[in-house]
Amino acid sequence: MVDEPQSAADYLQATRGVGFDELLAADRPDATACPLPRQADSVKTARDVTRSTLRDWGLSEFSDDAALVVSELVTNAVRYALCPSGTAEAAPITLMLLRLSPQVLLAVADPSDTPPAPKKPDFTSENGRGLYIVETYSRRWGWDHLDRGGKAVWAIFGGTS
Fold it and tell me: What is the pLDDT at residue 145?
């Protein structure tokens, strides 16, 4: 058992024998994947999918924190993730939730290979606090490259610290 995974992909490989690429393409009872257009209203859709999925799994206790974190991750993907060609084409992003009892892993995949860059939060600014919020409300967070290109930024909720 991996106590503190170096990456979510390592954790998934060690515990489930599957990585993000397979999860994004699979139809599994312990996972939900939702493609999202790269537009602002995708943030609300992602929150709604997160809340309803956690409710269906009997994990509503994570709903508020997970919805807040998924809002930040999807906002970042919509705002900053450029397609590999460097253009802002309408390549989709994907929200994924995975039940890893007693934990939940949520991830937002986008076509950009550029890793997320945490900034020192400026609490008087209207932006720049997203990854600080992700770190504050999740048990652990990080990002992994996808075999198909792009990355998945993930956060884990629940379990023991």
Answer: 87
Say which residues have a Cβ less than 8 Å from residue 108's Cβ, sequence separation at least 6.
46, 70, 73, 74, 76, 77, 93, 94, 95, 96, 152, 153, 154
Look at residue 102 and tell me if it is in a domain. yes
For residue 43, give the CATH number of its domain: 3.30.565.10
Q: How many domains does the chain have?
A: 1
71 occurs within a structural domain: yes
Distance CA 20, CA 18 (A): 7
Whether 1 is covered by a domain: the verdict is: no
| 19-47 residue pLDDT tens | 667 766 667 788 899 999 988 899 999 99
Residue position matching structure tokens 């400026």? 122
- DSSP SS3 for 119: coil
Q: Is residue 2 part of a domain?
A: no
Task: Give the phi and the psi of residue 159 in degrees, each rounded to 5.
Answer: 75, -165
- Are 77 and 122 spatial neighbours (Cβ–Cβ below 8 Å)? no
